[in-house]
Amino acid sequence: MPAPRLIVVCGLPATGKTTVASALAQERGAAFVRIDTIEHAIVEWSPLEQPLGAVGYAVGYALAADQLTLGLDVVVECVNPLMVTRDAWARVATQACAQLLEVELVCSDPREHRRRAESRTVDIPRLVLPTWRQITEREYEPWSRPHLVIDTATRTADDCVALISRQLAPCA
């Protein structure tokens, strides 16, 4: 039986992460872990408020580990802005004996990125989306290891899913 796969789809808000990651999970029949959903549920059902810090990610790591341990592929969607969060996903994969694919979505066209940020709709009731200013001023550390980078300014969501799927194809 092949090792399960942990596919972490990340990047700044409004780069297309949710669209791509959910389509990828559906296409592959994989579990889908979305940090926005986790964090929003914590805020809705507890006295905690945003920013939650590491809480949402910690829950995400545990949920993904459970699914990987069952042998299921997992697609995670999150900003994943820091090396510490990226390293934690790598530890989850290692501990579950899973393959890891890290995918960073970027939008190289600032006007298009801003348009997306300012025109998108909320798919989680009462979730407050970040403003363009919050997106551009957000802490987002550069990557220090190889990973798949996909520019959503030049590719459709279907193109992104196909590109990721090719990366996951079994070796011949």
Notes on the protein architecture:
The protein is of the alpha/beta class and 172 residues long. 46% of the residues lie in helices and 16% in strands. It is built from seven helices and five strands; from the N terminus they run βαβααβαβααβα. The protein has a five-stranded parallel beta sheet with strand order 2-3-1-4-5, with helices on both faces. α1 packs across α7 (157-168). The model has no long low-confidence stretch (mean pLDDT 93).
Provide the descriptors you would attach to this structure in a database record.
single chain; 172 residues; alpha/beta; five-stranded parallel beta sheet; 5 strands
Output the strand order for the largest sheet: 2-3-1-4-5
Number of DSSP-assigned strands: 5
| Biggest sheet features | 5 strands, parallel
- Portion in strands: 15-25%
Molecular shape: globular
How confident is the prediction overall: mean pLDDT? 93
- Low confidence ranges: none
Q: How much is the radius of gyration in Å?
A: 16 Å
What count of helical segments does DSSP give? 7
Distance between the termini: 16 Å
Order of helices and strands: EHEHHEHEHHEH
The level of helicity is 40-55%
